[in-house]
Specification:
mainly alpha, 2 domains
């Protein structure tokens, strides 16, 4: 079984896993003065981390399958590039609209959604 603790399971082969303080703390044995060294607990923690990583890898691959190598959008044609040129790069505009709508609903709790939406025009 490939494990996250050894860096064997990765989504992209060209990205190297870097070890930071949190990563090291999760995969190293617990030996601080407050928690006794518990090898069974450490083994179970590693198993949980490996399972969580594997399942999140599966879900991510399913969600991004069209964009990964071999997917229908991994190498877009010139037509697709031209067609999507005018699409906003972020969702800031829609987030601002929903933020304003949320504010109106809080300020005027008795107002209907239709009234709130009409306030945008």
């Amino acid at each position: 079984m490939h494990t996250v603790s050894t860096g064997e399971t990765v989504l992209f082969d060209d990205i190297q896993i870097t070890s930071d303080l949190i990563f090291t703390g999760l995969i190293s044995p617990s030996t601080d003065g407050l928690i006794r060294a518990d090898t069974e607990l450490d083994a179970l923690t590693k198993q949980v981390l490996d399972l969580l990583h594997c399942y999140s890898l599966i879900v991510t691959q399913r969600q991004l399958t069209d964009f990964l190598v071999g997917g229908c959008l991994s190498a877009p044609t010139l037509y697709v590039i031209a067609e999507t040129e005018s699409i906003p790069k972020t969702n800031v505009g829609s987030e601002q609209i929903f933020s304003s709508l949320d504010h109106l609903v809080k300020v005027m709790p008795s107002a209907t959604i239709t009234v709130c939406l009409l306030s945008f025009y």
